[in-house]
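Q: What structure does this chain adopt?
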Amino acid sequence: MAASEDAKASSLRYAFGNVIAFFILLLIGILAFSIRLFSVIKYESVIHEFDPYFNYRVTQYLTKNGIYDFWNWFDDRTWYPLGRVIGGTVYPGLTLTAGTLWWILNSLNIPLSVETVCVFTAPIFSANAAWATYLLTKEVKGTGAGLTAAVLLAMVPSYISRSVAGSYDNEAVAIFALIFTFYLYIKTLNTGSLFYATLNAIAYFYMVCSWGGYTFIINLIPMHVLLCIVTGRYSSRLYIAYAPLVVLGTLLAALVPVVGFNAVMTSEHFASFLVFIIINVVALVYYIKGILSPKMFKVAVTLVISVGLVVCVAVIAVLIALVASSPTMGWSGRSLSLLDPTYASKYIPIIASVSEHQPPTWPSYFMDINVLAFLVPAGIIACFSPLSDASSFVVLYIATSVYFSGVMVRLMLVFAPAACITSGIALSAAFDVFTRSIKFQLPGLSGNSPIDAGDTSSGSVVAQNETVKTEKKEDPGKERPSRKTEKNEDLSKERHSRKNKKKEKENVEKISVKPQEEKRLLVLPLEASVIAIFLLVLLGAFYVVHCVWAAAEAYSAPSIVLTSHSHDGLHVFDDFREAYAWLRHNTEVDDKVASWWDYGYQTTAMANRTVIVDNNTWNNTHIATVGTAMSSPEKPAWEIFNSLDVKYVLVVFGGLVGYPSDDINKFLWMVRIGGGVFPHIKEPDYLRDGQYRIDSEATPTMLNCLMYKLSYYRFVETDGKGFDRVRQTEIGKKYFKLTHFEEVFTTHHWMVRIYKLKPPKNRLRGKTKKSKAKATATTSSKRSVSRKNPWH
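A:
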């Protein structure tokens, strides 16, 4: 009766715990969604940054024209005159996901616009990512650690920076796909189920569709498989978890147009194929070992290893031949910059020029993961007690992600889930130790507990089983020598039975005491446990405050609408949309606009005008041509732009309001990229004693280049001095005129300036008139004053 009541109580407690966990997960999803809505509440429902505008434009095209037109779409408004095949050069996961959400909502008669769906896609998938983190951590260390990790991921600032409402970028859905793929791999590794292995390959396919960071998955999982093989942890479950992923996952990845044959032809994927060969050889060896005798096994192992080595050498030779035929050894530029942090700055300045490709500073770690930086080491230690296949994967994940986050600040996004998982494991283990210490020392809870009873009962069962086994090992079939010795044997049996009973009691007592002694060894003083729990709660409160501040202030402002606080209140700078609206309403539909590549996506999406370069950065020569034009004097720059059929040139200038991300601060990258293709552009010509200056000490090359003139034209009229608030100095060349360009529009705060190329006829006529005017200047000077055009 008591046992049945205990079983009922434990089942009720288990069911109640599942219900509580479900409601906690529901609240975590609501938290993850709501904390990312500050940008909509404080500003408006608008797309953020630069890349999301391209994704929004593609989603609009998809929902309007259908998926078949989307795959075959040739966009002639970008990279003029080259154009771009959108279906074959874009990761379609984000676009297809948002398009599917829009279609489902409209099918349910919920008429939301495409823009609204795009704005809220990232917050929705942040909730999914938190739930996927719970599932992954639960497979590693249990429900408590899973719930803790999910809460931490829902609020971590590093993930919030890429998933606020309006941040419609690939990472919005890719982080969920990354975590969910890892969860299905660990689930397959724990269960050995082909069903989960198939789901794992499908999740990997979704990750390939969503983000180029899928190469992290297809390299991390082979590293873990190789680690398990080397440490003697091979099993059939490991083979089932890995082999279908490589075969089916690679076939599915090749179906994505932007990947195609790169899934089998680039060096990023070769590690998975090499480990696939190794695990098949190991599986064959284990199979042969089970069916052969030891002598035959040695012969077979020698044969298998020799054949395996020949195959591996042949495969490696083929891979080396393929790699050697590529100038970058089969690696992409971004991959090489991860393996060699100095590669991009030496050979590919277009990659090094992107701010998110720079290595992070130490304060950025505290900003993006906050107190998790101190909990990660404790979580790694907790993964080793005990070490399993799943926990070893988490350790490998955190180690690799720490390295990559140190190389490129953008990959802090990959490090954040690993930090949340290990921190959740550490916090769960710490709370377990402290609460157990309090429970053992409180008078009402330290006595009879169902856990202790279960431990002692299980211990007695083990003891009984052990005694039964020892009795079975004894030989009962001995012959009796004679009837006279029966009494002596009976007496000896009684003595032995008494001794056995005493031994059984001693064994049961020892086994029942062992778990209690082990638990008491982990017990801390009551006061220390209470103080430790209070400090952990205080640490969590500090983490929550920091995350809410980061979501509300640091990462909620859309880059297209800027704000600043001063003594006279809040100032809003809406110059970007003002400039794009002017282009949309005051220029011809077929006019071409030249600017630095940062603003290409926004110009195409918001102004609906053709651009020369944009944020895709697939053609370095085209970008170098624009950089060369910006670095050249006015006349050569006009010739370059005129050859590209450009009508308008757009520059971003922050010298009046103090906006630091303007084109003057980016100008040296234009020089470096242009000089990488056109050798006559040399960076030292724009530097004075190695320093970048725009004041009176600036070089003549700098003062006469097109970027300087378009940025500072008429700037001295603002304050009479020409003081640049970003560079904190007066400009060197204050008074000059433009001969080949004319200013057509400058926004309210001078942040965006638009110039039009003068036609060649006007300039030739101007020269002839000027030469004729010199001859008659003395006779007609008085008359020309009265006839002067008042607009010039």
